[in-house]
């Protein structure tokens, strides 16, 4: 499901934005770096977390998440620079194989956010 261009974006330094909403519908946004994101063979995105307490709280009541990933260094539809909007659901894990996989390379994480994309749209 995930296009090769998205994988190329993850190889470059840039910011990933993660949007959630609380029970009242108020948005909340956090960021990480492209290079911190790992992709499983099932196209799940693994995002290491040390903070993200509000994000985790929001996901417990509403697991719907939107994520943007991009890079100015990867050719887009016409020009240099591209970005993607991914929508799907997420959960937090503090144990198990996905957590262990992330923690083995990102020692700072005490949880991993596991994002399961439903859509992936190239925006630029």
From TrEMBL:
InterPro entries: Pyridox_Oxase_N (IPR011576), Split_barrel_FMN-bd (IPR012349). Residues 4-118 form the Pyridoxamine 5'-phosphate oxidase N-terminal domain. Pfam families: PNPOx_N. This is Pyridoxamine 5'-phosphate oxidase.
């Amino acid at each position: 499901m995930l296009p090769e261009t998205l994988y190329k974006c993850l190889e470059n330094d840039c910011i990933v934005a993660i949007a959630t909403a609380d029970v009242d519908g108020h948005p909340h946004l956090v960021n990480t770096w492209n290079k911190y994101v790992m992709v499983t063979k099932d196209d799940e995105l693994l995002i290491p977390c040390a903070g993200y307490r509000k994000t985790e709280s929001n996901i417990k009541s509403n697991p719907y998440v939107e994520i943007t990933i991009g890079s100015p260094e990867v050719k887009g539809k016409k020009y240099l620079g591209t970005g993607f909007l991914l929508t799907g659901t997420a959960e937090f894990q503090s144990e198990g194989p996905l957590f262990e996989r992330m923690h083995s390379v990102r020692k700072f994480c005490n949880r991993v956010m596991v994002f399961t994309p439903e859509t992936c749209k190239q925006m630029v």
